Amino acid sequence: ANFYFRIGSYCVLCVVFSAVACVVCVLCHGGRTVRNMSIIKRFVRIFKYFYGIQFETYGEEKLHDDKPCVIISNHQSILDMMGLMEVLPRNCIQIAKRELFYMGPVGLIMYLGGVIFINRKRTSAAMSAMEEVGNTLVQENLKVWIYPEGTRNESYDLLPFKKGAFYLAVQAQVPVIPVVYSSFSSFYHPEKKIFTSGKIKVEVLDPIKTEGLTVTDIPKLLETCHSVMRETFFRLSNKPNENGTNGPTSQPMQ
Ligand SMILES: CCCCCCCC/C=C\CCCCCCCC(=O)SCCNC(=O)CCNC(=O)[C@H](O)C(C)(C)COP(=O)(O)OP(=O)(O)OC[C@H]1O[C@@H](n2cnc3c(N)ncnc32)[C@H](O)[C@@H]1OP(=O)(O)O
Ligand SMILES: CCCCCCCCCCCCCC(=O)OC[C@@H](O)COP(=O)(O)O
């Protein structure tokens, strides 16, 4: 019961705070602009106090370079939104599934914040929407936050990555900055109806350059990002990986 209450209240908070934020954004900036993201960020960062969630961030300054880039991060649940807003840099928009646009005030506030909606069922339309972002990224000095797994993933691992984020980065010749969140599963587990409070570690990894890369380099770029993020995810989540060590950097388990 507690699980449903907390998840239900999370959704209610999203709806209520969105409605309020829409009014504030329209009064402050008049319409759809990435500058509204700083207002949205302030609202969403309050959520963690309702749920007793703490964030421990490492390397956040790597996101503060005032230059365009593609930020990619793992995606576990709708709680990711709190983690996103915890470290979201200025001038950064997100790519979101179109279904979110139809969620009342939540969709409207995302629209006002400059979020790009894609239809995952129509790959060609999604790709052209992202291509459009790639064209304006540099001159508008924008950052784009993409969840390359393309969907929430509550398994204790990373899904294979979709290619869109890497096409966009190579097309715009901007760096890819991976951000990794530790597993929520110690305090958030929908199957087991668990949603208590806990700590999430967030690590921003070094930017990966794409200057000089072409479309043919995309599979390798994707693989590099996937493996470094997966390794970090295991380390941050204290998950022993295949060969029984607790992450490649630490000593093998006794
Ligand atoms: C006060 C406030 C209160 C709170 C209220 C809330 C407010 C919050 C506000 C703001 C926070 C917002 C929070 C946002 C959260 C949203 C989370 C989500 O919705 S996550 C799902 C959507 N995201 C994605 O799906 C991206 C990842 N997807 C991609 O990048 C895909 O690549 C995509 C969609 C572009 C295409 O997906 P494919 O399923 O077709 O898969 P592929 O393997 O990537 O591509 C298929 C083929 O197309 C080629 N391809 C892909 N992209 C291409 C391109 N750009 N050009 C040419 N070819 C391309 C590839 O090479 C591949 O071809 P070959 O299989 O290799 O032969
Ligand atoms: C008027 C009814 C509103 C319903 C309450 C709003 C629900 C909360 C909205 C949270 C904002 C976005 C958080 C987020 O990160 O959602 C992404 C997931 O969805 C991705 O879904 P999928 O696994 O990719 O299908």
Task: Give a written overview of the molecule.
Helices cover 40% and strands 16% of the residues. The chain has 254 residues and is of the alpha/beta class. Helix 1 packs antiparallel against helix 2 and helix 1 (2-29) packs across helix 5. It is built from eight helices and nine strands. Strand 3, helix 5 (105-112) and strand 4 (116-118) form a beta-alpha-beta unit. The strands form two sheets. Strands 1-9-6-2-5-3-4 form a seven-stranded mixed sheet, sandwiched between helices. Strands 7-8 form a two-stranded antiparallel sheet. The structure holds ligand 3VV and (2R)-2-hydroxy-3-(phosphonooxy)propyl tetradecanoate. Ligand 3VV is lined by residues 14, 17-18, 21, 40, 43-44, 75, 81, 84, 94-97, 100, 106, 109-110, 113, 115, 118, 120, 123, 126-127, 130-131, 146-148, 150-151, 162-165, 167.
List the helices and strands and how they pair.
Layout: H1 2-29, H2 36-44, H3 47-51, E1 53-58, E2 69-73, H4 80-87, E3 92-97, H5 105-112, E4 116-118, H6 123-137, E5 143-146, H7 164-172, E6 176-181, E7 188-189, E8 194-195, E9 198-204, H8 218-236
Parallel strand pairs: 1-9, 2-5, 2-6, 3-4, 3-5
Antiparallel strand pairs: 6-9, 7-8
The structure holds ligand 3VV and (2R)-2-hydroxy-3-(phosphonooxy)propyl tetradecanoate.
Ligand 3VV binds next to helix 1, helix 2, helix 4, strand 3 and helix 5.
